[in-house]
Amino acid sequence: MADFNEENVRRDVRDWLKANWDPNAKLVDWRNKLADSGWGVPHWPVEWYGKGLPVSLGQVVDDEFARANAVGVAKTGIRMLAAATLLEHGSDFHKDRFLRRILTGEDTWCQLFSEPGSGSDLAGATTRADFDGDNWIINGQKLWTTSAHHAQFGLLLARTDWDEPKHKGLSYFVLAMEQSGVDVQPLRQMNGHASFNQVFFTDAKIPPEHLVSTEGNGWQVAMTTLAHERRGAGGLHGTSREGPRKGNIYDEERAEIATVMEPYKWYPQRAGRVDLIVERAKATGTITDSHIRQEIAKLLILSKSAEWTARRARAAQQQGRPQGPEGSLGKLAASNIARACAHVHTLITQTDVMLTGQESPLGGTIAEILVSVPATSIAGGTDEIQRNIISERVLGMPKEPRFDTGPFRDVPRNIVT
Amino acid sequence: MDYSFTDEQEQFRSIVQRFLKEKSPTSEVRRLMETEEGYDPNVWRQLSEDLGLPAIPIPEAYGGAGFGPVELGIVMEELGRSLLCAPYFSSTVLAANAILNTAFESQKLDLLPAIASGERLATLAVTEPNGRWDAAGIECIASPTADGFQLSGTKSFVLDGCLADLLVVVARNPGSAGFEELSLFTLAGNADGVTRRALAPMDATRKLAHIEFNNAQATLLGDLGAGFAPLSKTLDQAAVALANEMVGGAQALLEAAIEYAKMRMQFGRAIGSFQAIKHKCADMLLDVELAKSAAYHAAQVASEDDPDTSALASLAKAAASDAYVRTAATCIQIHGGIGFTWDNDTHLWFKRAKSSEAFLGLPSYHRELLMQQWGG
Fold it and tell me: Does residue A303 sit at the B interface (CB-CB below 8 Å)?
């Protein structure tokens, strides 16, 4: 392969878009063309829809797509985590069977990891996979599964050996969601939204070739998925680019993004909406209250300090310096900010916090903040788990004694009914 | 906006850190805090001649090194970590900046070179027995005389006030009030009409004086009645420096707490393996790192003369004060009974944290200043 540099990559992608981009094409047709050309995922290997481009030159390609207002491959949701995991651990059969339809957006994926009995302790999964000679037979329950109700495939972590220690008895599968043994039910949250699902398996079937990597290696594979999730967490939430975007293909893309974004529409409220605080305090007249002024100032100090801490972490990363402790603190800081926001919004909103819905402050937004903030210190790793990680990995403090190192069969665990 | 230190700045930090580690172990801190002067003139001379620290924020034109708030912040952070007993905050941070912000060119040329070289110790006297840090709280009067001004009134909480060769004093025109008609004056610490008395500071590493002025002859700095703006700027710069000093102290406490938690055995295991302890440590780390970000950011914007410097100085002062005090209390808690003893070093930083909390104004005062600028 020729040497890549910014100049020749920019020229090549620009020429290719000039010759091929058509805003009136059908979205699937265009994305198939992207897959064939390698320009949809240029950092992927040449044999699998990419160009083997160094990741650092990806921005050049993105810039040229933006310049041409060209639509890219489907990137939202769990599908890119599936793709990254299959590229690393999947067989050629998996790559051939699944990757193209991930890129075209024809298949939607979901992640079947969390269970009612294993939240923070993900490796304690008890959904079982038993081989009956022809297929793996799946029984159990998964939880917090975004998009399960319209997904074609799920990334499943299930127990295949109960006599090994818990991390070693897990295997990783691709499960076809559209089958009779899979029952998807919405899971309603305390804020009234149902962004996630519970998925019940009753003798669901997985053909042997849908095992990813080897039996018992599921935890390693799952770690790959989770690493990509952490790295690209922001990328799960797609947004349409601004600009003059008229044509069939844009409408199709907008509809796709709207579907993916639907479960996340309360996420800004979950973070606390610090941006509303000063304006609201002025509007309600509470800005003159000396106690409320103090509480607002504390919140602004916390929020700005966390923002600058994140920038310090990014600056260190960009300069190639070893990551300092500041890089591990964002999640815990976000929880503190969300809680402080809920507290200050309450002080500002006063008796109106008893209300919800259209007639309540900001058409229900304040109420939604108050009943969504509790999710922040739980989702994606609870504050308690974050503190364990920070104290053990950053501060080098000793671990708690463990009681789950023997055969999983003997480990005390939840009884899920 | 930079969110990292340059390689040169990191090298400078390690030089300062090495020097302070050698010259200011807690045994020295304990020895010097029991003395009246509160510092070691030999160490001060080395710090001035070998490292040039008093020259850091002073422009080269006045014998300084011409560095800015970021480099000063690095020095302050390391001073805060080591608790060096020395008149650095009073002379370099307060007095030198007050003179730089207020004085005429000829006065700067006259006063600053000896401060930059460390030969002259100066301080700034703002606060009075009423303990207020806002300029409207100043009652000290400067009355015009045939050949200058005479000061009358009382200053208190004056850092190194008994030690200073040169006093920079904030006073007001007779009959004035509020933020108007304030001026800065200089006079020798031992001038006629000046009576100095050492206060008993809770933090013995930071000497405080009560100073009475009884018709003491003084020299006006800059223009008469134009003192409010330069004083405010000086106090903002001091708040930024103090914030950086405080995060250095907080870092030292954090490290001490973690080291102890890893070593101390109870119930057959290191107490640091209990989540009750390790979660406290994680929260401390978050607290200290956020305060560092605020302190570093304030130093950076101050070096760019950003109009938001005053708000961000108050933000940093409030953030670092709260983090320092919380970290000191948690550090004692993690040490348990031993942490409450005189022999354990934790109380040295605890007391610095408490005195720094009130010095230049409590966090609540600075939060209100922040709100006046950001919240309307």
Answer: no
